[in-house]
Amino acid sequence: MNFEAAIFDLDGTLLNSMDVWEKIDIAFLKKRNLPVPPDYITEICARSFEEAAQYTIELFDMSMSVESVIEEWNAMAAYEYAHNIRLMPYTYEYLLQLKELQVKLAVATGLPEELYKPCLINNGIYDMFDFLCSADQVQKGKEYPDIFLFAARGLKVSPEKCIVFEDVLPAIRSAKQAGMITYCVYDKYSAHNEEKIRSIADGYIYDFRNAPLPESKGSVKVKITK
Asked: Which end of the chain has fewer CB atoms surrounding its CB within 10 Å, N or C?
């Protein structure tokens, strides 16, 4: 496998944050005496914040604006992202290995900058990335390839030379449509789609211990620390 750049999702991929969003979503809906549908988190996690807010408003027939929903979500999430959310296992080691191999790194996330930037800084990986972008910048969620193509342009690397790490089916599908190598990182919220994901993705991993390195850079393995 040969690639010159790696593009990473954050929630559920680099960041161990999906449980936080489940708590936020439950609290947001419980405050309004609304139930949490079984597939709600899966439905919103591949969308931009604006799309997720619009979906929520329409699903529950709310009289709120998109802006007010996003403002409330951000207020609930801000402290957690700045202080408590940590990296998924072996993430730091893999990112460090890629940097040593001179692979360009990007973040392509549905999170707004005010959430992801403090979190990446707090976890000591912000400066590792050559380009960072949010789905709100392209005004489309990850069910469309726009954000991945935007990241590739930001890195100045052709799409076919990029590998994308994602955890949800719509994003895996659209990254593949963009012509990129796609790897799924296991996430319990997408486990029900594992068969479909495996049929699309180029690889499926449970953590970054088994993540690929570019062939042209040799066969050095990620150093795992305990």
From this structure: C
